Amino acid sequence: MVRVRKVEDIDLEKEINVDPASIPIFKSKMNNYNILIENIDVTSANIVKQEMLSRGGDVAIHKYAINHKVEKTNILLIGTKKQYDLLIQKLKSMNYWDIPKVREGLEKVFKNIKKSTWEFTINNNRTIVLGNDSKIMGILNVTPDSFHAPSRIKTVDQAIENARKMIEEGAEILDIGAESTRPGSERVELEEEIERVIPVIKALREEFPEIILSVDTYKSEVAKKAIENGVDIINDISGMQFDKNMVHVVAESKLPIVIMHIKGTPKDMQKNPYYENCISELLEYFDERIEYAHKNGIEQIIIDPGFGFGKRVQDNLNISYNIDEFRVLGYPILMGHSRKSTIGNVLNISDTTDRLEGTLALTSYYALKGVEIIRVHDVKENYRTVKMIEALRGYKKY
Fold it and tell me: Tens of pLDDT along 177-223?
């Protein structure tokens, strides 16, 4: 019986018995890449359009680009990897107008989206490999005022107890913070933050010598003391902007840094935040922050788009749905969405204790997209969700 199917994925060798050497060739033709080029001069745009069309791809362009009624335009290229390779090769001989920038941008995009694993060096000559799975980062709030009240930790003993439970439930990273950065929160003074967080980090390192510890702080002095007491990752909500010495502390430590995007400060970030183009603006921010990190000797970088930090509901959903767009940066991604207000707004739930299902829905999507670190309050539920999604992604091994 002849049957016609539409397939999402196919084992070419098993189902068709093709020559194994031909599989990469077929695979390169099965996936289209949609590449957006922003703010290109219209002459260059028309040239790139014709070159891409001549190689069998397609291009969406401003309706007035053909008659030059606009000076700048965005263009969308649609094609296979092979078509892009041919286009890039052609553009190498065209060193005028914006074409060299287009070529460099295309080369960078394809170089970065190929990256799938990162091996980072952490404290005590240990390593962490990101990219093989989605790792759960458990939240330990050594604060009296975190937005999710059940997550507040008052003593070192309670921190150890909570940490042990999270590790048993599947957390591979623990993120310890001593200053609430909920919307409207006030700054905690340096000495108070140190008094809260350092004893906990010291105790956790002694109790759990192999667990990966992250410190959630934007203060360089806190980060420095945390590193001295065995922390492995610095998680800075400001992307090293609030404390100009942070970049030097991180560079000297040679540890990974989580660079997050925030619009404003925790105190004012949710006062009418606005973006013309949220994804584009965040990518521009990360390009600048990554360049800044590189210039100061920092290479081990994790990207956090900053869910809920100076974002509207539509911005958080946009970032989440289009999380793959951040792959062009070439670094692993962290998402911290757990029980946040966007979930409450979508589901009309004001109580943070009733937002678990919404959290798990987003966790499922992030795991499906291969997000490397998922930061949550509820480790067991999120860990099980991630493992089930990973089984779905890797179903062939079963």
Answer: 988 787 777 788 999 999 999 999 999 999 999 999 999 999 999 99
Q: Are 392 and 166 a contacting pair, CB within 8 Å?
A: no
The CATH number of residue 156's host domain is: 3.20.20.20
- The Cβ of residue 6 has, within 10 Å, a number of other Cβ atoms equal to 4
Nearest in space to 72 (alpha carbons), one of 85, 59, 86, 62: 62
* Residues of the domain holding 323: 118-397
In a domain, 5, yes or no: no
Count the neighbouring beta carbons within 10 Å of the beta carbon of residue 368. Answer: 15
Q: Are residues 391 and 268 part of one domain? A: yes
Nearest 5°: phi and psi at 84? -65, -40
CB of 217 within 8 A of CB of 223? Answer: yes
> Using CA atoms, how far apart are residues 111 and 328, in angstroms rounded to an integer?
8
Q: Round to whole Å and give the CA distance between 116 and 296.
A: 25
Q: What is the DSSP string of 33-96?
A: EEEEEEEEEHHHHHHHHHHHHHTT-EEEE-TTTTTT--SEEEEEEEE-HHHHHHHHHHHTT--S
Query: What are the tokens at 326?
Result: 């951040």
Mean pLDDT of 20-38: 86
Q: What is the tally of structural domains in the chain?
A: 2
Catalytic residue at 3?
Answer: no
DSSP result, 148-175: SGGGB--SHHHHHHHHHHHHHHT-SEEE
Residues 202 and 53 in one domain: no
Q: Considering only CA atoms, which of 74, 66, 73, 82 is closest in space to residue 30? A: 82
Place of tokens 């991630």: 386
135, 327, 369, 375: the catalytic one is 375
From 263, 340, 355, 369, active-site residue: 340
Segments in 208-277 forming alpha helices (H) = 220-228, 246-253
Q: Is the pLDDT of residue 145 over 80?
A: no
Let me know if 375 is a catalytic residue. Answer: yes
Token pair, residue 90, equals 């052609």
